Amino acid sequence: MKTKVFKANERGTADHGWLKANFSFSFSNYYDPNKINFGALRVLNDDIISGGMGFGTHPHDNMEIITIPLKGSLKHKDSMSNKWIAIETGEVQVMSAGSGLMHSEMNNLPHEAINLFQIWIIPNKQNVTPRYDQKKFDANERKNKLQLLVSSIDDEVNDVLKIHQDAKISRIDLSENADFDYQLKTENHGVYIMVIGGEVLIENENLKKRDAIGFYKTNSVKFKAIKNSELLFVEVPMNF
């Protein structure tokens, strides 16, 4: 088993007034040669965006982009003719940039900040036709059990969002003292685990809010909730 710990207070940061960002990996003006990616996981940004503010129209290509609002409401428009679609807390959005598109994301509320995760995963297919999807997930379905949010477009799994990569994104809400054993798809995959909130003991490593840890060259990861905790899992191929 190989392990890498990513402490919350060691993330890159940016403060633009309207945007306060934390970067798990090198992004924009933040560069750390030891934090370029975790396998196919290229970006995990923890953003707080002020009311009525957001990212103006800009391009993307050949990247799988997943947005998870944690608090507040986002709105999205793009060159695929989607016009200001709302993405609420509890929903997840995916966008395959593929051969190229333009999009904009804004806080949907004028006076309330939004907190969201934006995740970029390197695709296993280049220049695909751009696509967009979003889905609401019931938080009750992840109480002390794994809730799959995103999987490969090639997987025969229903009721989840799809991306062009042999990857999985999941969440779990653990009760205090609950144990869990996460099973990886193959030993060629790794899993990046972000503590959204709470406190957990993962393979003898104590992790608190926004701490993260990556595991690879293993089949499973065992952990225990010290407090009521919410966790995000991003499982990806490691050959990058």
Q: What can you see in these coordinates?
A:
Pfam families: Pirin, Pirin_C_2. Fe cation binds at residues 58, 60, 103, 105. Residues 150-236 form the Quercetin 2,3-dioxygenase C-terminal cupin domain. One of its GO terms (molecular function) is metal ion binding. The chain is an all-beta fold. It has a single domain, classed as Jelly Rolls, CATH 2.60.120.10. The chain is 0% helix and 55% strand. A seven-stranded mixed beta sheet has the order 1-20-17-22-15-13-14, with no helix packed on it. Strand 2 and strand 3 (19-23) form a beta hairpin. It is globular, with a radius of gyration of 17 Å. The model has no long low-confidence stretch (mean pLDDT 97).
Summarize the amount of helix as a percent range: under 10%
Number of domains: 1
Tell me which oligomeric state these chains represent: single chain
Strand order in the largest sheet: 1-20-17-22-15-13-14
Q: Which segments are poorly predicted (pLDDT under 50) over 5 or more consecutive residues?
A: none
What is the C-level CATH assignment? Mainly Beta
Rg computed from alpha carbons, rounded to a whole number of angstroms: 17 Å
Query: Approximately how much beta-strand content do the residues carry?
Result: over 45%
Output the number of helix runs. Answer: 0
Query: Which CATH-level-2 architecture?
Result: Sandwich
Structural class: mainly beta
Shape designation: globular
Q: Give me the CATH superfamily.
A: Jelly Rolls
- Give the end-to-end Cα distance, rounded to a whole number of Å: 18 Å
For the sheet with most strands, the description reads: 7 strands, mixed
Average pLDDT works out at 97
Give me the CATH fold name: Jelly Rolls
**Could you tell me the number of beta strands?**
22
Spell the H/E element sequence.
EEEEEEEEEEEEEEEEEEEEEE
